What we know:
Layout: E1 4-7, H1 11-18, E2 25-27, H2 41-57, E3 64-74, E4 77-79, H3 85-95, E5 99-110, E6 116-127, H4 132-141, E7 161-166, H5 169-173, H6 177-186
Parallel strand pairs: 1-2, 1-3
Antiparallel strand pairs: 3-4, 3-5, 5-6, 6-7
Amino acid sequence: MPRLILASTSPYRRELLTRLQVPFETVAPDVDELPLAGETPAETAERLAEAKARAVAASFPDCLIIGSDQVAHIGERRFGKPGNRPNAVAQLRTMSGKCVIFHTGLCLLNAATGRVHLRGIPTEVRFRELSDTEIANYLDREDALNCAGSARSEGLGIALLEYLRGDDPNALVGLPLIALCDMLRAEGIALP
């Protein structure tokens, strides 16, 4: 089996990948994550997923490399990782009562052959109408400053939502495992 490299420093993606029970290593990709002019949120997520995989390919020429990126958006308005509490409060106020698309780009690059598998997996998330008190209580109890959209659906953030709709609940956390399993099988990796 070729070595598997996760081109990410995300603890959430690392935790998800461990579920597949295949050995892997993580490597930090050096990629500028700014969107390009005229690029849709979906195009940004997919381009960055591939860019992350390619960024580490030279150092791992015989490996399978996984890249992933996520862009949360309402229309063309994007929501990144808030980084601080005021930004998180502002994001949650904006998303309150609205439907947000979390578009996750996934790439599996076979560095030995150059073969690229690339998919975009959208997840529709409807936030409840949130009061300022609910937002403050949530942010007091859960660290969501490193999550696009300021809410962790795999934790207490689920209480902020009306519904989730998508093909893979793992995509919302940052690594679409169903699509990744298909890609790994296409590259000869045996999974149950």
